[in-house]
Amino acid sequence: MGTRFLQIHTLTHYPACLLNRDDAGFAKRMPLGGAVRTRISSQCLKRHWRVYDGENSLRTIDAPESIRSRVAFERFVVAPLVRAGIAEPVARLATQKIVDTLFGSEGKKEKAQQKQALQQKKAGKKAADPEKESPTAPEEVATAQVTVLGKPELAYLYQLALDAINEAGGAQEKLESVIAERMKDKKLKENIRALMPGSLEAGLGAALFGRMVTGDVLSATDAAIHVAHAMTVHGHMTESDYFTAIDDLVREEGEQGSGHINASELTSGLFYGYVVVDVNGLVSNLGDNRSLAGDVVHRLVHMACTVSPGAKKGSTAPYAYSHLVLLESGNRQPRTLQNAFIEPVRPNGDLVQNAYAALRGYLAEMDAMYGKAEQRAHAGLFTVERTDGKESTIFDNRKTLPDLATWASKQVTA
């Protein structure tokens, strides 16, 4: 029986940074085991993995892209229609009708307008009166919320709009009924799903991290890669960074003082990260392409321990590689190792070795209680012990990171 779940555990230390902020500008936090921890949200981690464009990035995989945007229809349906010679009002009408059918967006649009009016009121601006607006003013086609759409889906919907426009002869009064009739086609859902094998019509991003849709036409996709919020293994460590910006021209004239004074929170910490790959779900979402799934996992192992959240790049250079990447391959339900750090690790002494000791002790207790059912391998710094002239590793099967990524890929493709 092949591997059902691949678990990726990381320990990564970041000094003097502010990786993920809340709405007040402070580092995100989470209470755990009687101590508040610094936190990096899973949304933050997944976004940086999605958009990363360096070595071992997802973008270099030969697979259709997912577009995450409110204005995807504007960019990939309206704009191509206009470039094809369709009048802009006709292109927008056709596209908006498709959006309304797919997402039932009339109610959502009304809520979005109410929210916008409230925001304008708070900002001291007078909300626009729809009746006084010019009827010829083009309105950008946008969904009420960010949607995840595959480029194959957008290309199909562009063609659907173009065919409907041609059938209606460009007449706006006839166009709505033509599109409505085409969107009722019972085969529409099957046609979109048949664009590419599996769920790749929704793009690689949706196949990996999932998407939620409420309509009947577009298919929902369950995430095959589950990402936990990363948290420090010790209590929250923070410092207020008071800073000034010097006005060079004023200073040259001999005046003292600064052009700007402010303060920002900085944190440091050793973060535990946890990712689970549902191998069966990943292979299914990728059209039963096990080789492609192995390629994705190979890159994911690299990214999980080398791609850093990029907040405050210019002032903190928040780049770090993991001290430890521990992989587990098996078939029983995954379980986090975050609980090894319910008791905060002592920051005094060797923080990394203290974390290693807590993790190794917790694993030993878990194996003693539940049995060891997973294969393990790791890449790590300072994971070799020397006793009586003999070397041994404190975690199973030590490898270089490239070899570890290859090992992970083989667990998926075997």
Mean pLDDT: 86
Strands, total number? 13
Structural class by sheet pairing and helices = alpha+beta
Q: What is the helix tally?
A: 14
Helix content, binned percent: 25-40%
Ends: how far apart? 9 Å
What is the number of domains?
Answer: 2
Shape: flat
**Largest pleated sheet:** 9 strands, antiparallel
Can you describe this structure?
The structure is a single chain. The protein has helices spanning 42-51, 72-83, 88-103, 105-122, 151-167, 172-183, 188-193, 204-209, 248-252, 279-285, 290-306, 313-316, 351-370, 401-413; strands at residues 5-17, 29-32, 35-40, 66-69, 147-150, 225-227, 230-232, 238-245, 260-278, 324-330, 375-380, 384-387, 390-393. A hairpin with a 2-residue loop joins strand 2 (29-32) and strand 3. It folds into 2 domains: 5-59 and 224-413, no CATH class; 67-195, no CATH class. It is built from 14 helices and 13 strands. 39% of the residues lie in helices and 21% in strands. 35% of the residues are buried. The strands form 3 sheets. Strands 1, 2, 3, 6, 7, 8, 9, 10 and 11 form a 9-stranded antiparallel sheet that branches. A two-stranded antiparallel sheet has the order 4-5. The chain has a two-stranded antiparallel ribbon with strand order 12-13. It has 414 residues and is an alpha+beta fold. Helix 5 packs across helix 6 (172-183) and helix 11 (290-306) packs antiparallel against helix 14 (401-413).
